[in-house]
TrEMBL record:
SMART domains: AAA. The chain crosses the membrane at residues 21-49, 69-95, 165-184, 251-274, 280-300. Coiled coil: none annotated. This is ABC transporter ATP-binding protein.
């Protein structure tokens, strides 16, 4: 991992915000101005009352105060509105740039990174975490600035009127300053982190539970039996209890001080008033402002919770941004041929567990090589490494004598076509699903579909090639989807072809068509087939036998039957499976 250690939480957020910081600062400054202006009418009311309690009342001055109070209230509202607009503009611009930045970086990650687990995490970062940041920037930051500025300004002003009453009015502010670190400080940090982690685990557990429902019903299982989900709910409940237990006493103290703040102000105020220490206007001023500043204080308390959520989101965004990106070469290479060569290749998904150990083989241009071996032997991994889904830990993989790292990704993708175990279909038309944004004509798309033995079926669909696939359109069987994948590969026409169990899910009829399409596809290509059905690869130019990450034998079918006990066992098992009947 790259070392880029960095600011945290809100400071990191401001760093990410970059040039939008100025908008945020302007929004914050306007929030302070709003706080000042919202105090003005109260001060003017104080002047009005003071005037009205004089023996000789100056009515024109009183009217002036009223007009000024109304103007201040209106300007205060306008300033708040502009502050809100600026914070929203800043929030959405930051969101836009953040998403763009993340997607741009993800585009440079090894393709293998985007497996199911990571694409779930990426979805969460791009939608949930980034969305929370919007809420935080657009709403919480101005509220927080106001929540700090208004109480401080109010207390400051009150001190200028009467220090004794001001001191007693400031008690809730002091209490909050003392308690805030207790509620959200270092002591509770770990607890809050655990709370968020368990909330995320519970959400993931719920999604898994809903997905597993059909299987659970078939096996007569109930929600209680779905241990993982139950466990995550209990864990979450445990953390909520722990958090509440540790933060409630401090919160209760804060609440009791704020809810009863009027009493001490009233008691001392009346005492001073009857002692002729203060005027009636001053007493009323303290009764209104001495407790009126308390409500915005809740925004500070709320900010504590929001900050912990934002810290978590920012951490997860950073974890994604910290992934090593592929080193990208820009100069196109000119390979003499399309021979694939693995030289001493070792690879581990997790640092300590080798999935491939010192693999050496070559696939001559225009030949067919099959990879066979028990489940988990590393066959698919070999296929994925050729397209640089992951970086090898040791050794080199080359195409046409040039290390694949030297090819720009775009060129490598032009050289290799991959037919995956699962076909991914977009919710678009069949035409677009075959064309896949390639620079090809409609005629070429149709020819590819013909070669993939799927043209007739497409023509029989309601809108032919314009029929939409997916929720709002038609569905295709697994075998039909594989033929669409083959059509894509034929259309792409890459010189190297990697087929990962291309016929695994096909029905007999589809399989017949797939085999036909396959023979068109592999003509003059350098082919690597990752196969389970040994009968389809007996004619391969060479078969590589893998077992637990090592290449244990290689040769033609007949040679391996004589020399490789593992291959013999697999061949026997394959023949037994062919003859298997349900009795
Ligand atoms: N994305 C991944 N992250 C971590 N480990 C992985 C990942 N993909 C595969 N593995 C592990 O690597 C090993 C080799 O897997 P691979 O899929 O290459 O085997 P395979 O021979 O193709 O198996 P199968 O025939 O069942 O598809 C297995 O132990 C597997 O659990």
């Amino acid at each position: 991992m790259r070392k880029r250690k960095i600011k945290k939480g809100i400071f990191r957020l401001l760093e990410i915000a970059g040039s939008r910081k100025n908008l945020l600062i302007a929004s914050g400054a306007l929030a302070v101005l709003h706080a000042i202006l919202s105090l003005v009418p109260y001060v003017l009311i104080f002047y009005i009352i003071r005037e009205l309690t004089q023996v000789q009342i100056d009515f024109s001055l009183t009217c002036d105060y009223i007009v000024q109070a109304v103007i201040a209230a209106i300007i205060s509202m306008v300033v708040l509105y502009i502050s809100g607009i600026l914070s929203h503009i800043a929030a959405y611009r930051i969101l836009y740039e953040l998403r763009k930045y993340i997607i741009d970086r993800v585009g440079k990650l090894p393709m293998g990174y985007l497996n199911n687990k990571n694409s779930g995490a990426l979805k969460k970062v791009l939608s949930d975490d980034v969305e929370r940041i919007e809420n935080f920037i657009a709403h919480q930051i101005p509220d927080f600035v106001k929540g700090v500025a208004l109480p401080l300004l109010t207390i400051g002003y009150l001190f200028s009127q009467d220090w004794r009453l001001a001191a007693i009015s400031a008690v809730p502010l002091v209490v909050l300053a003392v308690l805030l670190p207790k509620m959200y400080g270092n002591q509770n940090k770990k607890l809050i982190q655990n709370y968020h982690q368990s909330l995320e685990d519970m959400n993931a557990g719920i999604v898994e539970y809903v997905r597993a429902l059909p299987v659970m019903k078939i096996f007569g299982q109930s929600a209680e039996n779905f241990e993982k989900y139950g466990h995550t709910v209990k864990r979450f409940y445990g953390f909520v209890q722990q958090w509440i237990k540790s933060s409630t006493p401090a919160f209760a103290v804060f609440m009791s001080f704020t809810s009863n703040a009027l009493l001490p102000v009233l008691a001392l105020g009346l005492y001073l008033y009857f002692q002729n220490g203060i005027s009636l206007a001053t007493l009323l001023l303290f009764l209104i402002l001495g407790t009126g500043y308390i409500k915005p204080l809740f925004a500070i308390n709320n900010m504590g919770i929001q900050l912990s959520i934002i810290n978590r989101g920012v951490e997860q965004i950073d974890a994604l941004l910290d992934q090593d990106v592929l080193e990208e070469k820009s100069e196109r290479q000119r390979p003499d041929n399309y021979e694939i060569l693995f030289k001493d290749v070792s690879f581990a998904y997790q640092s300590d567990q080798l999935v491939l150990d010192e693999i050496n083989f070559s696939v001559a241009e225009g030949s067919i090589t099959a990879l066979v071996g028990p489940s988990g032997a590393g066959k698919s991994t070999v296929g994925q490494l050729i397209s640089r889904f992951w970086e090898v830990n040791n050794g080199t993989i080359s195409i046409g004598g040039i290390n694949i790292k030297e090819y720009p990704t775009e060129q490598l993708m032009e050289l290799v076509s991959f037919v995956f175990q699962d076909s991914f279909m977009f919710q678009q038309t069949i035409y677009e699903n075959i064309k896949m944004g390639m620079d090809k004509t409609a005629e070429e798309v149709e020819n590819a579909a013909k070669a993939a033995q799927i043209h007739q079926l497409i023509n029989s669909l309601p809108d032919g090639y314009d029929t939409r696939f997916g929720q709002s359109g038609i569905h295709l069987s697994g075998g039909e989807q594989q033929r669409i994948q083959l059509a894509r590969a034929i259309l792409k026409g890459a010189p190297i072809l990697i087929l990962d169990e291309a016929t695994a899910f096909a029905d007999p009829e589809s399989e017949y068509y797939i085999q036909k399409a396959f023979s068109t596809l592999i003509k003059n290509k350098t082919v690597l087939v990752i196969a389970h059905r040994l009968s389809s690869i007996t004619n391969a130019d060479q078969i590589l036998v893998f077992d637990r990450g090592r290449m244990v034998s290689k040769g033609k079918h007949e040679d391996l039957l004589k020399n490789s006990t593992l291959y013999q066992r697999m061949w026997d098992a394959h023949n037994r499976a062919k003859d298997f009947v349900i009795q």
